[in-house]
Design brief:
The protein has 2 domains: 188 residues, Rossmann fold (3-Layer(aba) Sandwich), CATH 3.40.50; 94 residues, UDP-galactose 4-epimerase, domain 1 (Alpha-Beta Complex), CATH 3.90.25. It is 34% helix and 19% strand. The protein is built from 10 helices and 15 strands. α7 packs across α10. The protein is globular. It starts with a strand and ends with a helix.
Length: 304
């Protein structure tokens, strides 16, 4: 079977490798000739194109499954809206009639809850921050293109949305590891909740969604144990044999229950809420390899 990946990076690449091991043909879109060469060496068929340039997408092949895993590239001189919304619109227009399933990676930032409450797939989505608003607008494009809800569709293609918590894993902790080792103070509230998911468990979830099982329209992909920032960084410091971190909070610059985060994983982890992954585990049948950072952080650091 033919698989197509739009956004073959930190998550997309290990999915591609798993699909290749399963004997599938895998193509990946890229606008970089260097990346195209790297893909070809791995057995991935590179397709030169740019999601912001609709004409370049006409070369996208038919594929039983499309994984859309595009991240924001700050070096591209394009806005988040151009990448996440306009880019997705271009891709859907081109491929929705040439595929059977679209797996779309979104973010728990679509939720705006900030009082430490528990949320799940049925919780209200009213994001207060721009990145969450853009992610929600992108999700809504799937419905506008007639791909959601799946049970009411008349067309061939279906779509499933995976709302990812903050992604961590090998090579994603380097800056924070150095900051902890140096004993530098951390910005933001230590008591704010983090929701995290190991990259391995994201890959396994994507592969499960690519089987013949019944799928709901969306799944919240987070581990079993939301954790406070203080607990998270103390655990990281303990593994590194580093001093416990200190936190500095500018109360005048931010609301009490919101943190002004600059690190990408913490931005993706969202505001001060706690994610309930029951649908992921019970309905989709996912058994997490790393159900908490207790299991996941040591592996991520060892492989970094």
């Amino acid at each position: 079977m033919h698989k197509l990946i739009i956004g073959c990076g930190y998550v997309g690449l290990p999915v591609a490798q798993k699909w290749l091991e399963q004997g599938h043909t895998v193509s990946a879109l890229t606008r970089s000739e260097t990346r195209a060469g790297e893909f070809a060496k791995l057995g991935i068929k590179p397709i030169m194109g740019d999601i912001t340039q609709p004409v370049s997408l006409q070369k996208l092949p038919e594929a039983e499954t499309v994984l859309y895993a595009v991240g924001f590239d700050r070096s591209a001189n394009q806005s988040r809206h151009e990448i996440y919304v306009s880019g997705l619109d271009h891709v859907l227009t081109e491929i929705k009639n040439r595929t059977q399933k679209i797996i779309y990676l979104s973010s728990t930032s679509v939720y705006g809850q900030s009082a430490g409450e528990w949320i799940d797939e049925t919780s209200l989505c009213e994001p207060q921050r721009e990145n969450g608003q853009i992610c929600l607008e992108a999700e809504q494009l799937l419905e506008k293109h007639g791909l959601l809800p799946a049970e009411e569709r008349d067309q061939t293609a279906t779509a499933v949305i995976l709302r990812l918590a903050g992604i961590y894993g090998p090579q994603r902790l380097l800056a924070r590891m150095e900051q902890i080792r140096a004993g530098e103070p951390l910005q933001g509230r230590p008591d704010a909740w983090l929701n995290l998911i190991h990259v391995t468990d994201i890959v396994n979830t994507i592969l499960k969604c690519d089987t013949g099982i019944h799928l709901e329209s969306c799944y919240l992909v987070s581990d079993n144990c939301p954790i406070t920032r203080q607990e998270y960084y103390q655990t990281l410091a303990r593994i590194l044999n580093a001093p416990f971190p200190r936190f500095t909070v500018d109360e005048s610059a931010q609301p009490v229950l919101k943190s002004n985060r600059s690190h990408s994983t913490e931005q993706a982890a969202g505001l001060n809420k706690r994610c309930n992954n029951l649908r992921l585990r019970a309905d989709l049948g996912i058994k997490l390899i790393y159900p908490s950072i207790k299991e996941g952080l040591p592996q991520a650091i060892e492989k970094t």
